[in-house]
Amino acid sequence: MSDSVRSFLYAALVLFTSLLIGVLGYVFIEGYGFLDAIYMTMLLISTVGFSEVAPLSENGKLFTSIYMLFNLGIYAYIVSVISRYIFEGEFQKIFTTFIFNKKTKRVTDHIIVVGYGRTGAKTCDELLKSKEKFILIENNQEAIKYLPKKPNFQIITDDASKEEVLHQAGIEEATSLIITLPDDAENMLICITAKGLNPNINIVARASEESAEKKLYRAGASKVVKPFALGGIHMAHIITQPHVIELLEILTGVADQNLKLEEFKFQELKPEYQNKTIRDLDIRKNTGATVIGLKDDVKGFIFDPNSDTIIGKGDILIVLGSEKNIEQFKMYFA
Description:
CATH topology of the largest domain: Rossmann fold
Largest sheet: 6 strands, parallel
Number of helices: 14
Helix content: 40-55%
Number of domains: 3
Order of helices and strands: HHHHEHEHEHEHEHEHHEHHEEEH
């Protein structure tokens, strides 16, 4: 349960307790009937200020005075909680999260992202651009504040290291898990838990410290990313190889250019295009796209494959082109 929901329930409990104390006090001290006791209590809680139901005894006046002071603090607390829900949009966030969480059971072949910090937010943006199905798990209330008001993805506000939370996110049906938390120990625990639930899942994990890389691989990560190391290498290459970096930024979509780099798997090809050469497919002429690389199961990556290269089982094509070229290239796929 999130802190925002917990604080709202606590405020409701405090209000109910105050109401109960007031009713019981007037019933036993003043001998009011139940309805009169509720009426008197509501007058005091609401601070409306009507006259009492009947003249109060000395004990009744003492109880009322203490009860009024007691409710001043309660009133201020409840108003602050309700104001927060109204002005900070907490009701909308809770409702939106509830609606999206109801849909998680229907998702399959999706990606799970853990963490919505700077790295996680950028990861979610890129997945949205690629039109990938994914579910976000985030338990940090500070990070949750920065979620979009109407997110286009599903959200679970809980601890991703718990098996039941990963079950809720559909870990058994997920294809990949991206862990972006800054705490290496927590990332390792999530890796171990996820691998236990789905041994075949592809895990990409963030490492903040150099020493954590090997540990994350041992914990089950398929790939470990070190943002600070990559950032340092990137900045150095901007100085030493600026034009290479400019090209890479175009290819990866960082620069504002109409070029896309996509990968396509052999099994996605229509049967009539499988086990054909690049010349047979005549990709460049038909689509305007260019095959700049091919990953072979045996040979590994082949850069700039020649036209006689056969696209066989298990191969992956790396294709470069404009958005229009890539769309046209999809004519080869089922």
